[in-house]
């Protein structure tokens, strides 16, 4: 089949690469415009754009699918005469007037077991919620948010150490063969899409930096899941002496229950923090303005005082102001 592909980040690549290597003809690629990154703020292509251009594919990077630029993209999509469009984390809504342009529509690889976790952050929200099983689905795009009929699905266990980055990587890899299976069934006329039950739907809105703020009076498992869910982005954080302090995945320590929420206890081999339940052991940390390092290495240099509380306001300076 003639396939139009739409995707942007690293998780889109396994499907794009599988399509390029398959019997299908990738006739065009839609991806996000080049973005500025790094200290020099230089322009970089998306991972999909880089791979697609190397493969000699026709790549378009519109800043918007609306207005005059959107009209130009729409004309290009129609000119491709694609049989189907495949979408993996493109990052833009497809206008309604383009949804029926390919004969078999736009088929989206979504990283949840729909109708669970409709939205931009399904893997992150599933981990934060403490789910034990998730998966990936291929469904047909329609005007509603991830509401279209499902053509196929796979399941994936969520381990107690999975970050959202770990889980997304596995789902992206295992989702690529699912996409090819669905395309074969569509081409052969054997596809049997199933409508979703909207009464079972849950939402997975995009994460913000606020979602990464650790609340130390939460139970240890809740904190553990939140940190893993926002890792690597937008990332977990608290404060140390009033300055931002980033946190990597942690380990609950059920046998330690004598620390108050946020209270630090640092030894030569570990750094423990109290929660609303048992303590947690810090893994990698990144103090303000510094790179990631093991928590015990940070503590040996910072020498936090016993009883210091993460998340507490900065201590008042002893400069004599206000005294008489």
UniProtKB/TrEMBL annotation:
EC number of the protein: 2.1.2.9
Record-annotated Formyl transferase C-terminal domain positions: 207-302
Domain Formyl transferase N-terminal intervals: 2-179
Catalytically driven reaction(s): L-methionyl-tRNA(fMet) + (6R)-10-formyltetrahydrofolate = N-formyl-L-methionyl-tRNA(fMet) + (6S)-5,6,7,8-tetrahydrofolate + H(+)
Keyword Transferase: yes
Keyword Transferase: yes
Residue sites binding (6S)-5,6,7,8-tetrahydrofolate per the record: 112-115
UniProt xrefs under InterPro entries: Fmt (IPR005794), Formyl_trans_C (IPR005793), Formyl_transf_N (IPR002376), Formyl_transf_N_sf (IPR036477), Formyl_transferase-like_C_sf (IPR011034), Met-tRNA-FMT_C (IPR044135), Met-tRNA-FMT_N (IPR041711)
Superkingdom, taxonomy of origin: Bacteria
Keywords: Protein biosynthesis, Transferase
EC class (word): transferase
HAMAP family, sorted: Formyl_trans
Protein family per UniProt: Belongs to the Fmt family.
Described purpose of this protein according to its UniProt entry: Attaches a formyl group to the free amino group of methionyl-tRNA(fMet). The formyl group appears to play a dual role in the initiator identity of N-formylmethionyl-tRNA by promoting its recognition by IF2 and preventing the misappropriation of this tRNA by the elongation apparatus.
Protein name as catalogued: Methionyl-tRNA formyltransferase
Organism expressing this protein natively: Actinomyces naeslundii
Higher taxonomy: Bacteria, Bacillati, Actinomycetota, Actinomycetes, Actinomycetales
